[in-house]
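[Protein data]
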Amino acid sequence: MAIKQLTVFVENKKGTIVSVTDILAKNNINLRALSIAETEDFGILRLIVNDEEAAKKVLEENGYLIKIVDVVGVKIGDEPGKLTSALGVLDKADINVEYLYAFMARTEKHAYVVLRVEDNFSAEDKLVNAGFKLITEADICKL
């Protein structure tokens, strides 16, 4: 049930992010979530989009190095402590969270969170058994 994330390796220089988003926009690819981590020389842009294969293709055609990875998407209540509760489930199961970021969602009572973990299947199982709802590719298409 994992969702697909594009990892785009980019130079850390003016105009790089707008170049990526412009390429996607011109190809009718809609951003659903994004995160960027940077060093002095390069950045890692993580994207959830409505069509990851099309995004990968057009970005590679424009010289970007792309990797598609599976991540876990989880729907949490929009109130204090809910993220801690979800992370606590994974911590108790000894599942390391490598990184996470928030998801742009059209809902008033929930937030969507993207989690990169070592074992998606185990993380999903633990979260579902703890009462959390996972985000699917179909959910992303509805946003």
Notes: DSSP finds five helices and seven strands in the chain. The domain at 70-142 is CATH 3.30.2130.10 (VC0802-like). The two ends are 17 Å apart (CA to CA).
